[in-house]
Specification:
The chain is mainly beta. It is about 0% helix and about 50% strand. It is globular.
Length: about 425
């Protein structure tokens, strides 16, 4: 196994940020497959659903788009594709479910694609039908019970049962468990079901909550938050729960998105943390910047060795850190006054080979790991941290304004891996 690093960009074999938002994790063929929304830094239309593969949850290989835009239809030009989830069908092959929509989010459909293998190109099949009709819902998740029965979860807390081949919907089990909530994720521990949801605050994070029941049909009971109140779920939004094999047995692992509008491709990151279960109670009591996923134990932060005092909101102002080694970790301060930094790695000939954005915004102030360079061949490099002079500001459908009020970039220290 490997080390999971939260809230920092992960990099693939091409030194590009892992670009898989609001997705899911599937274990197959002794590998982990990460599917997600493939985003850009300048528009929100459907580019494709990405696929990455790993043997240790630390090192990721990009294998291309599992499903790309279609020439027409629900995933055609100027459409939205979101919340991708992939299931291994009992009779063989894989089924992909997703939210499709127009750019104004006024034409929601659940969509379906299939592939005979997990590493093949999926073929879009259109909407899965329920009583002969499409399902007009948006945020969605999936859950597979111990007996292999699969379920589609939607915003507001609806649970639909899928057919045995997972390609259509055969029943609405329960509805409106979680009114005015979205981004559903579910798992089972013993005889209890746990449903995680997020409040509707657009790209902004909030204190996610959870519900419990001993039957999917209910009754469901709202239990409250599962991360400490006020942390905004460690600055993330729930997306999926993966049952992680560890040295101590299977542990439910929370997969959350740390959105970064508008620079979602580079600066949006992942928060993956183990969930503690005790009866009807689930908790993620601490935020671990880095943790070893086979022992389920935190490791010491990588960004505290050499202190640096850099704070600037001046566009193009730059902090330069030459280093000799294999990798550099960067620490910094995030708060609601902060914006984007452009982070560029150059080699000993001052040629750039990794160039992306890091988001220093956080509604809840924090100090910690902000960037971890890709693992390199030992040599001489320079890290350039450049104030971008931009920050994210957006609004939800009700017109509420969210985001930063400034462009500040604050660096506190770094550590070199020799």
């Amino acid at each position: 196994m490997g080390v999971v690093r939260n809230g920092v960009p992960w990099f693939d074999q091409y030194h590009k940020p892992v670009n898989a938002k609001a997705g899911c994790l599937v274990q197959a063929n002794d590998h982990y497959y990460l599917f997600g929304e493939y985003k850009t830094n300048d528009e929100n239309k459907f580019i494709g659903f990405s696929r990455y593969v790993s043997t240790d949850l630390e090192h990721w290989q990009y294998t291309g788009l599992a499903l790309g835009p279609q020439s027409s239809g629900l995933l055609g030009p100027n459409r939205i594709g979101e919340r991708v989830k992939v299931l291994a069908a009992p009779a063989g092959g894989y089924v992909m479910l997703m939210h499709t929509d127009d750019l104004g989010y006024t034409d929601p459909h659940v969509g379906l694609a299939t592939s005979p293998t997990i590493d093949g190109t999926f073929e879009f099949q259109g909407p899965p039908l329920f009583n002969g009709e499409p399902i007009h819902m948006w945020d969605l998740g999936t859950f597979v019970d111990d007996d292999g029965t699969a379920y589609l979860l939607t915003h507001e807390g609806n649970i639909y049962q899928l057919a045995p081949d997972y390609r259509s919907v055969v029943a609405l089990i329960v509805r409106d468990i979680a009114p005015r909530e979205e981004s559903p994720a579910m798992f089972r521990q013993g005889n209890r079901y746990f449903l995680l949801t997020s409040h509707k605050t657009s790209w902004e994070r909030n204190d996610n909550v959870y519900y419990t029941a001993v039957s999917l049909a209910g009754p469901w009971e709202k239990q409250g938050v599962f991360c400490p109140a006020g942390t905004l779920t460690y600055n993330s939004q729930c997306s999926f729960v993966f049952m992680l094999p560890t040295e101590y047995g299977t542990v439910p692992m929370y997969l959350g998105d740390r959105w970064s509008f508008p620079k979602q491709a580079d600066a949006a990151t992942q928060v993956w943390l183990p969930i503690t279960v005790s009866g009807d109670t689930i908790t993620i009591p601490e935020y671990w910047e880095e943790w070893e996923n086979s022992t389920v134990k935190p490791v010491t932060s990588s960004a505290a060795a050499t202190p640096v005092a850099f704070a600037s909101a001046t566009p193009a102002e730059e902090l330069t850190i030459p280093f000799t080694g294999r990798r550099l970790a960067l620490g910094g301060i995030t708060n609601r006054h902060s914006g984007y930094a452009r982070v560029v790695l150059t080699n000993e000939r001052d040629q750039p080979f990794q160039d992306s954005y890091v988001d220093f915004y956080n509604k809840v102030p924090s100090t910690g790991l902000r960037y971890m360079a890709p693992e390199l061949v030992a040599g001489c490099y320079t890290l350039h941290i450049i104030v971008a002079g931009t920050h994210g500001v957006w609004q939800d459908k009700a017109g509420h304004i969210f985001g930063s009020d400034g462009d500040l970039v604050q660096v506190t220290g770094y550590q070199i891996d020799a």
